[in-house]
Design goal:
The chain has about 160 residues and is mainly alpha-helical. It has a domain of about 50 residues. It starts with a helix and ends with a helix. The relative contact order is 0.10.
Length: about 160
Amino acid sequence: MEEGDYALMAGLVEAWEMRRNNELSQWLGLFLNRMLAVKSVGRVREGSRAKPSSLLMRINQECMPRLDEAIGLKELSGRLAISESYLRARFRQETGMSLGQHLRRLRLQKAMSLLLQSELSISEIAERCGFDSIFSFSRSFHRFSGMRATDYRERFTKG
């Protein structure tokens, strides 16, 4: 394991110890995605491993506790002490997706967790996950999961 992997594990363990269930599921998802990436890269390159992205770790550490807020590129680049254009380009180079797509995915993973672990209404969950409207949340959730939020809750909360 490399430095970025340990940062992921540290975030996962801290969320577990502090009993922050919403954050825990997000860290676990990121960690499992990282492990799958290492495994698939290893198969393609026979033993070589992709370097973990410290930029991705820093972005996640800044954004995950604040997914209910509208986090702007200018604010994020300021917190990371790098230019907006460099942040955008480097993030896309390292992940193959835009920073906006990544943040939306984190918000939707949080929403999935809230749907399963709370009795909050769909509109309350949308608000807690930083969506401006129930419409944009519903559209994004359906694109991400392939089902409506109410269907997701019903399907996975009934044994």
